[in-house]
Amino acid sequence: MYVAVKGGERAVKNSQILVAGKRRGDINVPKITPDQIKNQLGLGVDRVMAEGSLYDEHAAAMAIRQAQGDMTEAIFLVRAFRTTLKRFGNSIPVETTRMAAFRRVSGIFKDIPGGQILGPTYDYTHRLIESCPEDDTQDTRERPLETENGMSDPAPASHDAPPFPGELPRVIDILQTRGLMQKDPAIPPNDDGEDLTRQPLTFPASRSLRLQALARGDEGFLLGSAYSLQRGFGLDRHPFLGELKIGYAAVWYTPPELGFKINIGRIKLTECFMVNRQDDAPKKAAGFETGYGLVFGQNERKAMAMSLLDRSLRTNENTGKADYPARDPEFVLSHCDNVESSGFVQHLKLPHYVDFQSELVFIRSRRKDHVPDEGDR
């Protein structure tokens, strides 16, 4: 800890009062409520839940309001709140094939089992700020157009999850069934897995820990790292979107006192598979490789970036080479956490008077002993 100069405690208290006033803003403007944030800033809530490692919409909305919309600060608040919660066990792995999907697209096959569902997305909107004021008394939501068979794409409200459909097979199952892609090894039924929130990250890190670190990593860092791969710093082939799916998945838990599983709720998830071509190699036929991403809420960019980085880090695991930053597990995983990186950078705002005085002494001693040459005159 740093010792502040005399009068620092009073200055800190005054700063906190100023923060409270600045956060509230003009008192003539109605105070924003957590429900408004959840319903109208839903994508921001989803990001805070994902990077805060806590699925709690109300806590995320409260954190966003308290942080004045600063997402990194809100994520910090959610993580701090998470440490106060009791941990009572591990859920059964969610079955994403039975996810109630309201958005599902694939870039490798046009016709996929269950069909493509565009759902709510900004991919097809004009990037223009809407200048017309909205009438809050009117329902301005447009109704989805009916398709040829009279059905419309499901467009549930943020809290109205659609009913669960039948099993929806993954698109990459098509490649695996045809022997063009290897299947990932099955998880043992009694394996509770590793938990990054309860143990420090060490290297070499297993794929389970890597995926956890990426799932709670900063979206901007993951996006930039994935972009570097596409620009030629890692990936040697153009990646393809195997499947991007967003929906609600059931969470099952087996209480020790009951001995059988019960449904404790459902959570909104984004799942992504990216596909890359893999040429033949010694003792390995040509085929395809995949990367995986799974995050809380609707976080499409992050899930796609996560799956690209997963594939890149798996390549490093197989070859032992880290020619580029986005292929180096220690570089990616050690720097993707926005809470850690933000804390390390922002600590520079604290007093460093003693440290800087030592730097001044060093520079003065060097300049004193320095013999000027022609270039210094």
Write the layout of secondary structure elements.
Layout lengths: L7 H17 L9 H7 L1 H11 L4 H10 L4 H12 L17 E6 L66 H6 L29 H9 L3 H12 L9 E14 L8 E17 L8 E10 L3 H20 L9 H7 L2 H9 L6 H17 L8
Antiparallel strand pairs: 1-2, 2-3, 3-4
Helix pairs in contact: 2-4, 3-4, 3-5, 4-5, 7-9, 8-9
Plain-language structure description:
This protein has 377 residues and is of the alpha+beta class. It folds into two domains: 75 residues; 203 residues, no CATH class. 36% of the residues lie in helices and 12% in strands. It is built from twelve helices and four strands, in the order H-H-H-H-H-E-H-H-H-E-E-E-H-H-H-H. A four-stranded antiparallel sheet has the order 1-2-3-4. Strand 2 and strand 3 form a beta hairpin. Helix 2 crosses helix 4 and helix 8 crosses helix 9. The protein starts with 7 loop residues before the first helix and ends in an 8-residue tail after the last helix.
The shape, in one word, is globular
Q: Given the structure, what is the number of helices?
A: 12
- Tell me the β content: 5-15%
Order of helices and strands: HHHHHEHHHEEEHHHH
Q: What's the total number of strands? A: 4
Unreliable residue stretches:
1-5, 146-158
Query: What number of structural domains do the residues give?
Result: 2
Distance between the termini: 44 Å
Helical content band: 25-40%
> In which order are the strands of the major sheet placed?
1-2-3-4
